[in-house]
Automatic annotation (TrEMBL):
It comes from Paraburkholderia bryophila. Coiled coil: none annotated. This is DNA-binding protein H-NS. Keywords: DNA-binding. One of its GO terms (molecular function) is DNA binding. The keyword DNA-binding applies. Pfam families: Histone_HNS. Residues 39-72 form the DNA-binding protein H-NS-like C-terminal domain. The lineage of its organism: Bacteria, Pseudomonadati, Pseudomonadota, Betaproteobacteria, Burkholderiales.
Length: 105
C-alpha cells in the first residue's frame, strides 16, 4: 500500500472511530482484552488456539483451498468493539466484509 493510501485509510478510520465514539483508549483496551490463547478465528467467530486437534471449520476451509494464515489473528485484530445503534454503513468501504460485521461485546 502506498503512503498516500495508507494516510487516507488512517484518516478514514479516525473519522469512523469518532462517529462511533471509539477512543484510542477504547481500542487499546479492546486489543489488550483479546484472549492470548486465540490464534485463529473464522468470520463466524469460531476460534482455535492452535493446540490440540484442528477444528472441523478450519479443516473444511483448508480443504476448500483457503490458507490457514487467512484465519490467523494478528496483534491488530479487534473482534468485539461495541458499536453505537443507528450507524450508517452506506458508504463504508468494508461493507460486506468481516470488518463491517458488528459483534456484541
Amino acid at each position: 500500500m502506498d503512503e498516500r493510501k495508507r494516510e487516507s485509510m488512517i484518516a478514514y478510520l479516525r473519522h469512523r472511530m469518532e462517529d462511533f465514539g471509539i477512543s484510542a483508549d477504547d481500542l487499546a483496551t479492546a486489543l489488550a482484552a483479546l484472549p492470548e490463547a486465540e490464534r485463529y478465528r473464522s468470520a463466524n467467530g469460531d476460534s482455535w488456539s492452535g493446540e490440540g486437534a484442528m477444528p472441523q471449520w478450519l479443516k473444511q476451509a483448508i480443504s476448500a483451498g483457503q490458507s490457514i494464515g487467512h484465519f490467523e489473528l494478528t496483534s491488530g485484530s479487534v473482534s468485539k468493539l461495541r458499536l453505537q445503534a443507528g450507524a450508517d454503513w452506506t458508504n463504508d468501504p468494508f461493507a460486506g466484509s468481516p470488518l463491517a460485521r458488528p459483534s456484541a461485546r
